[in-house]
Design brief:
The chain is an alpha/beta fold. It folds into two domains: 125 residues, Sandwich (Immunoglobulin-like); 332 residues, TIM Barrel (Alpha-Beta Barrel), CATH 3.20.20. 28% of the residues lie in helices and 25% in strands. The chain is built from ten helices and 27 strands. Helix 9 packs parallel to helix 10. It starts with a helix and ends with a strand. Bound molecules: alpha-L-arabinofuranose (AHR).
Amino acid sequence: MKKVLFKNILPLLGLLLIISTSSLAQSVVSVQVQAANANTTISKHIYGHFSEHLGRCIYDGFWVKENAQVPKQDRIRLDIVEALKKIQIPNLRWPGGCFADEYHWRDGIGIRSQRPKMINTNWGNVTEDNSFGTHEFLELCTLLNCEPYITGNVGSGTVEEMSKWVEYLNFDGLSPMTVIRKQNGREKPWNVHFWGVGNESWGCGGNMTADFYADQYKRYAGFTKNYPGASLKRIASGANTDDYNWTETMMKKVGPWMMWGLTLHYYTVPKTWGDKGSATSFDESEYFTTMKKTLFMEELVTKHSTIMDQYDPEKKVALVVDEWGIWTNVEPGTNPGFLFQQNSLRDALIAGTNLNIFNNHADRVKMANLAQTVNVLQSIILTEGDKMVLTPTYHVFDLFKVHQEAKLLPVQFVSPDYVNGKEKIPALNISASKDSNGVVHITLVNLDPNKSINLRTALQTINWSKVEGLVLSSSKITDINSFENPDFVKPVIFNGAKKEAGDLVVNLPAKSIVQLTLK
Ligand code: AHR
């Protein structure tokens, strides 16, 4: 009996040994950072934002009432401006979204009290008083020290209307539009560069086919002129999610000659469009699905880029992901048309993952805009009266700003799995860059809410003696910053990275975003 038992135990012991060595081997992820191949610049415009006339983004967000008890210039809320300057906001997209294709810019200039009112049919049928128009938006961009990205109206506007808007904005000489601009108090042109030709032209922007839009695009783009000092970077309305035919048609029919960029819109919807799921109350299985859907961005960017490569191997046309982020149900009791949602640690992990994806595709992705800056969808700022909260997503932009205009360092590794039931996704995503001072920054995201990740990287060609870090995490993936507790989720000093035998060794906590600086 004894002998048989022993005989049976031996293979078992062997198996145990194999399992334990393989799990040991798996538990340290080997990361290669290619410091020698730093040819691609991570455009700062990947860190752009989006502000639509929707809910409380512009009105009661950026633009407050005359008697509001907040610091303001004219009616622009200055605490928001300061917060956005801190994260070095590079550009702001406006006025929509769906709103852009029913916006008539001439209603938003001149004496405010005399501006016509309109119905915002897309977003709750509220009355739009046009008090925030061209001059106000460009004043906001001046205060933010960021570039304006204006989207013109293709869906319900005319070629003439769009052409005249550009003349009003960018021409310095004597012309019908510049006379009006000067009467309205602005002598010099603003020299706006980023110019969207319609929005979601496959949907709320006119329900067009790709073929029809491509032809329309050429008409509108052709009559928006480059004036001295203001050559336009025209951005075509691109694909919804995985509509690869749209990208193919645009690249085939238009190409680089008058298209600086082609957009892609993709939102992470935790459940379904009918019931999107709550922003604050979800279990791990819903969290897992949300992260799986977030990682779909990698496939989308890769496949759209591959199509673009066929027509534009020199990568002259930018892929512009000018709407991305999580879209949940609105907060209970709020106007369903206003898209006001809270923002949790889950949102921060989504933001970090998307930004790592965009960085790693910086050869093609030259601009991206999170939807939307204040009080709408995946906001970085929430307001309530005079109170203001910086969301966990805001802090991710703060941590990642080090990558703006830095050289991308390609990173290779095999990610450990984050397993949920029978499904698994890569737990780890990373991007790295070297800034103009030669300082290397690495941003790492661990999506696994239960397990930390150990990783080791040799970094042979990088000169560094010490590592400093910041980490954003919290005890629960549902944790938020509320008006009562605005600093609940915020970055703190990270002590989990060190130099060991010349290697960078990191213990990345579960559900965390880490930014490392090698000095
Ligand atoms: O960001 C909200 C809406 O989502 C935008 O107006 C539209 O472009 C998209 O469908």
